[in-house]
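Input.
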Amino acid sequence: MDALFGFLGNYWWLALVFGGAIASGLSALGSWWSKQAKQRHKNRIEVLRVKAEIAQSKRSNDPQAIAEADAAGRASRIERLMSTHDEVSKRWLEYELDAGKLIAFPTMSDGRDPHTAAFLRAKKVADGLRPESSESRIDAETYAEYRDAVHDYEVAFDVAEQEARRVRASGFTESERQRLDRAQHMLNVAVDQSATAAERQTAYRRVREELDGLIVISNAADSELKRRVAGELEA
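Output.
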């Protein structure tokens, strides 16, 4: 040990000569070590990626996994179709339950009108093909039939509604249009809070009389109208 200290004491000037090289060597060693660490990390990531791809490949070749994925996707599509189906039915019920709309657009309740008749046929088909729920197990052919039926139902309703709003009461004679106007006026009285009970009841009867033989008020629309009249009376 004394000899080592003696050597360092006598040749300390060597540090000045070779210090830069030593420092450079240490720096290079550190850089190499860092690169090796990064490479090992990349290698681990690559191994994990390959393992994940292998696992995915095994799953994609698994008939049960394929069937489950297909069922989940089909359930989602059926749910969207059923939502569209419900939305069209809701729009139709706005006419069925609103006597005012039926008076304003009478062809929407007239099955003799070709556009309304086409809509009612499309509705019957779509309703008949509708699954019990989005989770119902149906084959691809049945799904395609229901999808097309809902599309036809939606298009047929749009066409019937547009035509009804275009023609309104133009298909009626002048005297019939006057009856429709009186029915609309009486309907407003029947649900008017400022009218007396007797006036509302009389107005309701006049609505039915004016519409008799002109347009058909469904039982649902009549019940809704009675409920509104009764509600106004109770209020």
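The chain has nine helices and no strands.
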